[in-house]
Every structure is written in structure tokens, then in C-alpha cells.
Design goal:
189 residues, Beta Polymerase, domain 2, 2 domains, five-stranded mixed sheet, two-stranded antiparallel sheet, 7 strands, 54% helix, 21% strand, globular
Length: 189
């Protein structure tokens, strides 16, 4: 999609959400751009309730399961993380701030919320063998950690509610590897 058309479509979509008084939180690549540079994305990722989808007939639903819905708004892909997932509901409730985007105030995930979502997704992406997305998510986490230095231990503690012991061991290993990368980078700069 042409970048100018993408921005125009995103602005129309956010206006529609505001007009319909839909509660949502921007997450994913565009939310990440509110905190760090250099992330390319051509879709919108939102946290919303299932009931919100019923108030948006303009969204052409492509797939939906218990936690996710994939849809389109014109040519814009809109991925929805559904609040039926307790972690997604918690991020919407506790890890949200307001950011200016496309000339509008948009409810956006905080750095900590983005890290929680990325860490939560990683064990599943590893099981799926999706190396490209694993690398992207790990890089997103590393970039956020390096740029904003959030407290990681409380996030890890929170994740224990949502992930099993095996996945938590994996997440802790990933965090340690990312922290080592950051230390190596800081030592060399």
C-alpha cells in the first residue's frame, strides 16, 4: 500500500473507532513506532472486545479464533487481539497511555504492555517454527528494553499468570539472552 494512502486509511479507521465509541488499544508495529524508530509495518494491531467487532461492519472478517481476529478495512489489514484472552484484557486495562498519531489522540500500549505481549507470543512462535516473526519480536523487545530500560522482573512475574512453567523458562532464557546482547552493545559503544 502506498504510504500516503496507508496513513489516510489509518486516519479514517481511527476516526471511525472514535465515532462509534469503540474501546481499543493500539499495539504491534505502529504502537512500537511511538517509542522507537525503524520498525516497518503495513497493518494495524489492536486490542478490542469481541462485541466491538459487531459495531464495525466495515471490517471484513477473514479469520477468528478465541484470541485473535484477522480482518481488513479496505486494503488495510487489521489484526485484533481479543479481550477474551486475559492477558490482552489486562494490557488494555493497565498498560495503556495516549499517543498522538495521524492527528488524533490514540489509546496506545505502553512500553511495558508491548513487551508483555511480545514475550507472551514468543513461545508459541517458536513452537510454530516461525523464525522470521521470532527474530522480529525478539528485536522489538531488545529495542524497547535498550531505549526505555523498563523494569523487567515485574513483567516476568505478571507473565507467570498467563504462561505455563515450560514457556516461562523459555521466556526467562530469551530475556537473559537479550540482556546479554544489550550489555555487549553498551560495552562496545
Amino acid at each position: 500500500m502506498n504510504p500516503d494512502i496507508l496513513i489516510e486509511t489509518v486516519a479514517r479507521f481511527f476516526s471511525l473507532l472514535r465515532e462509534r465509541q469503540i474501546d481499543y488499544v493500539l499495539v504491534g508495529g505502529i504502537a512500537l513506532l511511538q517509542y522507537v524508530e525503524g520498525r516497518n509495518t503495513e497493518d494495524i494491531d489492536l486490542i478490542m472486545a469481541v462485541s466491538a467487532l459487531e459495531h464495525l461492519p466495515e471490517l471484513q472478517l477473514e479469520t477468528r479464533d478465541a484470541d485473535f481476529a484477522r480482518s481488513k478495512f479496505g486494503d488495510l489489514r487489521v489484526d485484533v487481539l481479543l479481550t477474551s484472552n486475559p492477558l490482552f484484557a489486562e494490557v488494555r486495562r493497565r498498560y495503556t497511555t495516549s499517543k498522538r498519531f495521524v492527528e488524533q489522540e490514540i489509546p496506545c500500549s505502553t512500553v511495558e504492555g508491548l513487551i508483555l505481549l511480545k514475550l507472551y507470543a514468543l513461545p508459541s512462535l517458536y513452537r510454530q517454527g516461525n523464525f522470521t516473526r521470532v527474530a522480529l519480536f525478539e528485536n522489538d523487545i531488545a529495542t524497547l528494553m535498550h531505549a526505555h530500560n523498563p523494569l523487567i522482573e515485574p513483567l516476568v512475574n505478571e507473565l507467570t499468570t498467563y504462561l505455563n512453567d515450560s514457556d516461562m523458562r523459555h521466556v526467562k532464557q530469551i530475556i537473559e539472552e537479550i540482556q546479554q546482547r544489550i550489555r555487549r552493545f553498551d560495552e562496545r559503544s
